[in-house]
Amino acid sequence: MNRTIRRASVFTLLLVFALLVRATWVQFYEGRALADDNDNRRNAIETYAEPLGNIVVAGEHITGSARTKGSDLAYKRTYTDGPLYAAVTGYASQAYAPTQLEGIYADVLNGTDPRLKTVTDTVTSGRAAPGNVVTTVDPAVQKAAYEALGDKKGAAVAVDPDTGRILAAVSTPSYDPASLTDANTAGEAWTRLNEDPDKPLTNRALRQPLPPGSTFKLVVAAAALEDGLYGSVDEPTDSPDPYPLPGSSKDLTNENPSAPCENASIRVALQYSCNNVFGKMAVDLGQDKVRETAERFGFNDEEQDVPVRAYTSVYPSDMDRAQTALSGIGQFDVTATPLQIAMVSAALANDGELVSPHMVSRVTDSGGDVLEDHDEDASTRRIVSSSTAEQLRSAMRTVVEEGTGTNAQLPGATVGGKTGTAQHGENNSKTPYAWFTSYAESGSNGKKVAVAVLVEQSDAQRSEVSGNGLAAPIARETMRAALQD
Length: 485
What we know:
The protein has 485 residues and is an alpha+beta fold. It has a domain of 252 residues: Beta-lactamase (3-Layer(aba) Sandwich), CATH 3.40.710. It contains 18 helices and 18 strands. The longest helix is centred in the first third of the chain and has 26 residues. The chain starts with a helix and ends with a helix.
């Protein structure tokens, strides 16, 4: 063999060897990544080859599957009352990655979760009969909150304080998840929804933290009582009106200049929402003590899963004393989701203990056998003492009976609450956010509920924007539905 042929043979063998190495690498090392790639159509074909399992509310399926025509994707997801439950279900799409419960429990719903498989499944298709996700949502409460929000941009969350079960999670404006299910039409709907300035795909109930305004005063009051800064909610505070912000030439004033806020007790300060009292209280406590209490309620928790991961509600650090004062009234860099504010009221309503909030009760296989039981697994932790919780519930009742929250009054029930109006935009140039958080207990059946409502935008005039005017009526209707027999 001459030298040229020998060299060509060696080069050819090297090419064959390189090809074999690359094929082996792709098959054994990159194969799983390629198989799991969202752009691999085989995954969609496999997922939608059979009907999916369902998401369940009060024993009724609010999802389904429909046969398609002329497509290699045999089935597509369907929704009953899609816009009503969008903040709970999310969507399962032939074109886009699933979200919310559809995404978290995708393997259960499409039958690929290993806990579902039998020996027969493994030997044959590798796919079991799909399971179901049973939610904690009460359809009457969900509908009441959704209808009360109406065309307002906002959110509402209702929680059973005794069990942690989320009875309602509503975000408006909503959208119809069914518009995103079909690969042939999902693209147009996706573009429209993402270009909508009202951002209907944003889950405002769980995933959009905003300044909570005066609803945060409950946290500051809890910190003051727990620390012993004040012995009771009826003890006068040392609070000048207005309060000069430390290290600043500005004063912290009150919305109502005639309110009896000078040296007001915690009860009166909550009743009239006195900024001077809680601004000074936060400074007297110091940011570290306020933060410690806020974090017990759930602020700064980066893994708040219900099981959808809620965005972190933030109480900031490294503030000067003036900024600490502003944080005491729920401003500066304090942010919270409606879920977080509902958790504050839920802990106070449950005698100072917080049961971990959750919107999934059980996950089951196709035969109803339980794979996960979140009701039984819900943890409980003490946030504040029983005495502090009782005193703040009493003060919250004064807010509703005689103070800034009278629109939340509900005949036949004991109701306590706190209003909030949070500044929005530079120098408060945009329409403020209206908040209301509350708890209620039925006088006839003993049912309890904690609610938080955020109205981000409405058609009300700026001068009419308030927690009592906009958010409290929504909370009232939500509580009414939750307390029904």
